[in-house]
Each structure stands twice: as structure tokens, then as C-alpha cells.
Design goal:
The chain has a single domain, classed as Roll (Pnp Oxidase, Chain A), CATH 2.30.110.10. The protein is 28% helix and 45% strand. A 7-stranded antiparallel beta sheet has the order 2-1-5-6-7-4-3. A hairpin with a 5-residue loop joins strand 5 and strand 6.
Amino acid sequence: MEKDFLTTQKIMRLGTISQNGFPHITPVWYIYKDKNFYVGTSTTTKKIKNLVRNPNASYCIDASEKSPVVGVAGECIAEIIKGTEVKKLGEEIFAKYFTGEKYKAAIKLLSEDEACILKLVPKTTVTWEYD
């Protein structure tokens, strides 16, 4: 269930720790590849600033619109990728969500200086499935 589920879902909720110690949870687009998650973002976002201070994060991906209710959640370590890898990974992420002109417009964002990719390396994982 896990790999097929992770590659077909659209939204991950990513949890980071804010400077004030409270959780900061954001919905993000992602791809699942080689047992890691990749998220396109910008170095100006709160989640990146949080992860620079503390690379520990958590994630949740679930589907609950109809039975069965299924999901995957866990803890991970975040690595911030900049430079030449951003374009390739960013194109893969955008290809999951866009086609045609929307895809072409989206990949232009990858050339911005602030563009980066989060590599999330899972350390713990739990899954569930309820009918």
C-alpha cells in the first residue's frame, strides 16, 4: 500500500518547529522518490527558516474522502537542496501537478534565486487503514 499510495496522493502536511517552539504545519506539494520526499519551496518561507534552525520535521499524507481511510505519517530529517539539482527535481514535482502552459509557467519559478528543494528523509513511519 505504502509506495503506491505515496506516489498518487497530492498533498502532504509538513510540520516544522517555529522559533517560538510551537509547531508550524503547512500543506505542500511533493514527490516520493527513492524512499525520500521532495518538496519545492523558497528560502524565504517560514518552513525553511524553521528547518535551518532545526532540521527535524514531521509529515502526514492521508486520504479520508471515502472508505477506507488510509494514511502515512512519520518523522523525518530535512535537507535543503540548492543549486543545479533544484531545476531537475522541481520539474519532476511540477510535472505531477501541471501540464501544458501551466507547467511551462510553473518551471519558470525554478530559476529564481530563492528556489530550493526540501529533501525529507524519513526516520519513522506509521501507516493506517480503516474500513
